[in-house]
């Protein structure tokens, strides 16, 4: 989390401007939206709606910061429906914005399409298809409208799990792969976009072989690699990801889970960096902040023994800000020594007077 090389204010300003530029809905051209005669297009019968309830639902995301009204919402039953919509916009004299929306967990309208069409990706989920797991190849081919929790439940049936996660599992595959996908496993395995073997992408804007005509392309590190790396973390600006081949590993059987509380930020980051630097260290490491405001259990009280709740509340009220370092180490019957390694890591951390920890 911490680094000795902090960017300057000018660098931060450039980064902010660059990110702000990217956080815009997909558009195939820069012309004004066309009249909504596409609602009568036979290709989208029963799938494209301008009903106020659907439009209102697509206008607001999890952040509740913006309200951006589309003109219609597409509920596709197949990838071909999305291709047809993009081609229609591209071929029209007046194109219209298109944005893919998964579970709507963006914060500032990234999945919005002002006066355009929001594509409800979740409408393509089919219980009979969409997740294919290879135990021998250690990968899963997944339609990106599925949620990570749904993929996990499927892979666990074969004793497997994706290598890298987000902390919150009720997000779509396509949504997180378009953003990055970060969790406490990132320091060991990298973000989710670093653990993808292959993608299917409907092209929207791309400068070389694909020019945004709604073409479907399979890409990887070796095939159409420019598109592959542009789509991963590209915020949907280069295409809509419809399938991903995700790396898997054997699911851990057990985990030793610890949480450290700090009142000093420097001590908190020093320990964090030290644990990350271990060659064969922790499988999960994440920092968070506990503040003296909001509901009394806003620090996720279920993570701590009930007998210590009053002590934690007292610390928060006294110091106003508490820093939490959460770590985990996986092990099984054949690697019991890993638990002793965790205990050794604890002992190597200086016991600052105001630090406390909990172990499970």
From TrEMBL:
Q: What is its EC number?
A: 1.5.99.12
Q: Which Gene3D superfamilies match?
A: 3.30.465.10, FAD-linked oxidases, C-terminal domain, Uridine Diphospho-n-acetylenolpyruvylglucosamine Reductase, domain 2
Catalysed reaction, written as an equation: N(6)-dimethylallyladenine + A + H2O = 3-methyl-2-butenal + adenine + AH2
Annotated FAD-binding PCMH-type domain ranges read: 66-251
For this protein, the record's InterPro entries field holds: Cytok_DH_C_sf, Cytokinin_DH_FAD/cytokin-bd, FAD-bd_PCMH, FAD-bd_PCMH-like_sf, FAD-bd_PCMH_sub1, FAD-bd_PCMH_sub2, FAD-linked_Oxase-like_C, FAD-linked_Oxidoreductases_BP
**UniProt entry keywords in alphabetical sequence:** FAD, Flavoprotein, Oxidoreductase, Signal
Cofactor(s) needed: FAD
Q: Quote the SUPFAM superfamilies the UniProt record gives.
A: FAD-binding/transporter-associated domain-like, FAD-linked oxidases, C-terminal domain
Which residues belong to the signal peptide in this entry? 1-28
Q: Which family does it belong to?
A: Belongs to the oxygen-dependent FAD-linked oxidoreductase family.
- This protein's name: cytokinin dehydrogenase
């Amino acid at each position: 989390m911490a680094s000795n090389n902090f960017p300057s204010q000018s660098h931060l300003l450039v980064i902010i401007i660059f990110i702000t530029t990217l956080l815009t809905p997909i558009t195939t051209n820069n012309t004004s939206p066309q009249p909504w005669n596409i609602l009568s297009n036979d290709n989208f019968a029963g799938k494209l709606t301008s009903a106020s309830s659907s439009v209102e639902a697509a206008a607001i995301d999890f952040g509740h910061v913006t309200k951006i009204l589309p003109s219609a919402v597409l509920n596709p039953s197949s990838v071909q429906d999305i291709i047809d919509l993009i081609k229609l916009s591209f071929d029209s004299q007046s194109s219209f914005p298109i944005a893919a929306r998964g579970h709507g967990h963006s914060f500032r309208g990234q999945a919005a399409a002002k006066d355009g069409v929001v594509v409800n990706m979740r409408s393509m989920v089919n219980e009979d298809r969409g997740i294919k797991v290879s135990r021998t190849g250690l990968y899963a081919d997944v339609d990106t409208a599925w949620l990570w929790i749904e993929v996990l439940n499927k892979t666990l049936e074969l004793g497997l799990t994706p290598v890298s996660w987000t902390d919150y599992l009720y997000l779509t595959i396509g949504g997180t792969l378009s953003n990055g996908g970060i969790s406490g496993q990132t320091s060991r395995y990298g973000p989710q976009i670093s653990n993808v073997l292959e993608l299917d992408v409907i092209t929207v804007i791309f400068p070389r072989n694909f020019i945004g005509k709604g073409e479907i392309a399979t890409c990887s590190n070796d095939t159409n690699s420019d598109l592959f790396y542009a789509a991963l973390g590209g915020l949907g600006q280069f295409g809509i990801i419809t399938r991903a081949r995700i790396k898997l590993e054997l699911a851990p059987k057990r985990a030793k889970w610890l949480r450290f509380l700090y009142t000093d930020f420097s001590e908190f980051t020093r320990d964090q960096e030290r644990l990350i630097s271990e060659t064969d260290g922790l499988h999960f490491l994440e920092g968070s902040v506990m503040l003296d405001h909001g509901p009394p259990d806003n620090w996720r009280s279920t993570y701590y023994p009930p007998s210590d709740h009053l002590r934690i509340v007292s610390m928060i009220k006294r110091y106003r800000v508490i820093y939490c370092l959460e770590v985990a180490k996986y092990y099984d019957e054949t690697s019991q020594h890993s638990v002793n390694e965790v205990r050794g890591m604890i002992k190597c951390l200086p016991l600052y007077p105001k630090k406390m920890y909990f172990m499970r």
